[in-house]
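Why do we care about 3D structure at all? Because function follows from shape, and shape follows, mostly, from sequence. That is the central idea of this module. The next example makes it concrete: a single protein chain, its amino acid sequence, and then its structure expressed as C-alpha cells.
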Amino acid sequence: MATVDLEKLRMSGAGKAIGVLTSGGDAQGMNAAVRAVTRMGIYVGAKVFLIYEGYEGLVEGGENIKPANWLSVSNIIQLGGTIIGSARCKAFTTREGRLAAAYNLLQHGITNLCVIGGDGSLTGANVFRSEWGSLLEELVKEGKISESTAQKHAHLSIAGLVGSIDNDFCGTDMTIGTDSALHRIMEVIDAITTTAQSHQRTFVLEVMGRHCGYLALVSALASGADWLFIPEAPPEDGWENFMCERLGETRSRGSRLNIIIIAEGAIDRHGKPISSNYVKDSSKMGMEAVMALLEATPDTPACVVSLSGNQSVRLPLMECVQVTKEVQKAMDEKRFDEAIQLRGRSFENNWKIYKLLAHQKVSKEKSNFSLAILNVGAPAAGMNAAVRSAVRTGISEGHTVYVVHDGFEGLAKGQVQEVSWHDVAGWLGRGGSMLGTKRTLPKLHLEAIVENLRTYNIHALLVIGGFEAWGGVLQLVEARGRYEELCIVMCVIPATISNNVPGTDFSLGSDTAVNAAMESCDRIKQSASGTKRRVFIVETMGGYSTVTGIAVGADAAYVFEDPFNIHDLKANVEHMTEKMKTDIQRGLVLRNEKCHEHYTTEFLYNLYSSEGRGVFDCRTNVLGHLQQGGAPTPFDRNYGTKLGVKAMLWMSEKLRDVYRKGRVFANAPDSACVIGLRKKVVAFSPVTELKKDTDFEHRMPREQWWLNLRLMLKMLAHYRISMADYVSGELEHVTRRTLSIDKGF
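And the structure:
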C-alpha cells in the first residue's frame, strides 16, 4: 500500500461506524487483526465498536457492543486467542437472531462489519448482509426503528479476515493463526528428534486438520518427514506394507530416526479414517479490511481479505467459500487429484515437492552435468534447507552434485566434495550453515577458482547467501570474457537476515530474524509489566526493523532507508512524554544498527533519558547475533526447500539449453540469475540487469517494497484525534486542531 494512499484515507471514514467481531475457534493473530482494524478505523475518522463474544454478543447486544478508543487495543498484539471473545451462536443461524443482531447494530449506527473467523462465520456474515434490507423492513413494521433510520442505514458492508489454524479457506495463501500453529508443531518435532535419534525410534505425530491437510503437509516439508497422511491424498491400498518397507530401507542406510505425520482427518482410498494409533501399530499456522469497508458501495459484494505472496488482496467472499466447499465435495466423491488442485497452487506445489524429496528417486539415466552448491556471506536460517532440497533435486535429475565448504574461498582451495541423497538427511531444522560460509569474494582467487571448476568439470554453480553471494556471482559473470570456464550456468538463492539482495522481496532467513527480534521484544515488554513509565530502546540487525516494529507494536522504528533528523527525534520524545500520561506507561523504540552514523543507540538512550527525566526512565537492549542463530522458522524451512528445488530445476533446464557438441557454454545474461519472490511470483532475474537497481555503497536495492509499510507503522503507533471526537464531546479538552499524540504499544 503506497504512503500516499494512507494519507488520502485520513478522515475518509468520518461519519461512519465499524463493528469488529471474532467468531468460531480462536487463532493466534486475531488480536493483532482486531488491533489493526480498530486503530485503522480510528485513524480514518470512523467510530469503532468492539463486539464481544462473537455473533452471540451481536445477538444479545447491550454491554457486548462497546465503543473502542486507541487504548482499548493497547498491549494485545502479542497475546494469543482473542480478547473480545468468541462463541458459537445457534441464535444467529435463525431469522429471529439475525433480526435482533440488526437492531443492535442500528442502536450504534453500525453499517460496516469486519468479521474475523472461519468459513462458517464468514458465510453467516454474508447471509446477514443479503437479508439486511428485509430485516430493516421488518424492524420498521414492528415499530422498533423509524423509516428514516432504515433509509439512513440501508446497506450493510462486510469485510472478512480468515482466522483458522487449519488454513482450510480457499483464496488465501495463509489464514490467521496458521503460522503460529506451524511454529508449535515444529517445536514439538524438534523436541522429540533428539530422543528419537538416541533410541532409534519412529515417532507418529498427529496434527490438527480434520478436512485440510495443510498443517501436516507443511510440517512434513519443514521436518523432512518419512511418511505423510493427509485427507486430500489418501494412500494406495496396501500402504501399510509399503510404508514399513520404506522405513526399513532408511534404517538399513544408517538412519536412526523416522517421523510420520498424520492429519487428524486422514483417510484411505475407501474413506476409512486412518488414526495415529493404527499407523503406530502398523509401523512399530486488519488493515486492508477497513479500507475494503470504506470503499464499499451498496453493490459491492462481501469480500474476504486474503494473502497472495506478500500482497493483501480482496476476493469475493462467497466465491472463496464455494471453492472451499468444492474441495470437501471432491474428497467425499474420491476425486482426490482434483481436491488437491482446488486447494490452490501453493498447496499443490507443496505436495509435489514433498513427494519429490521425501524418498530417493532413481534417475532413469545419468546426465552429463556436474553442479556445485556453496554458501557465501553470513549464516542465515534456512540455508541448510535450501542445500538439502537442491542436492536431492539434482540427484533426482541424474546430475553429479558437489558441495563446497567455506564459500568462494573453499572453492579456490579445492574444498569440494561429492554428496549423496542421505548426506543431507537431518539438515532441514539446523540453523546456520552446515557447509560453512565466508564473506570472501571471488575476484581475489579467480585463477584458483577457475582451476577447480576445470578439475571437477563443474557446469553450474548454485550460490546461497547474502549481498556477497550476488556480488560474487556478478564478478564471475563479468570475468567470463577472460575465462571460458566461467561460461557456466549460475544461480543465487538470497539468504540473509538483512533482506538486502536485489531481485527479491524476501531473503531466506529474514523471517527467522524477524521472529527472533519479535520474541525478544515481547519478553522485554513483559519484563516491564510491573514497572511503570519505562522506555526500551532496542537495537536490531538487518534492514527489517519496520516489519518487526509493526509485529511488536513499537512506538518508533529508525531505519537508514527512511531518513530522520533531530527534529523527528525531538517530536518522538515529546510524544513519548504525552504517552506516559495515559494508562499505558511503557514504550518501545527500535533502532537498526546502521540507521544513522551519529544517532547511535547510546545517543538515543541519552536523549530519551535526558528529555524524559522525571517522566520515564530508559533501558537499552542489543539483539545482535541472536537474530542469526537458532532453528529456522517453518516459513524459512519451507521457503528454502522450495527455492532449492526451483533453482535446481531451472539450472537443469538451462544446462540442457546450452549443451552443444558435448560441452556447456553459457554466456547470455539470463544464464546467471537471482531467484526471488517478487510480489506474488517466484522470478529469475539476471544478475547483470540488477546492477542498475543496486546501491553498492550501502549494499542494498535502490527500492525497498517494505518502505510502504512505514506510514502504517506510524499510523498504528500514533493516535490522531479527529474532529468527530471533538464534535461528539468526547474530547472537550482538546482544541479544534488535529493532534498527534503517541499512544503506542
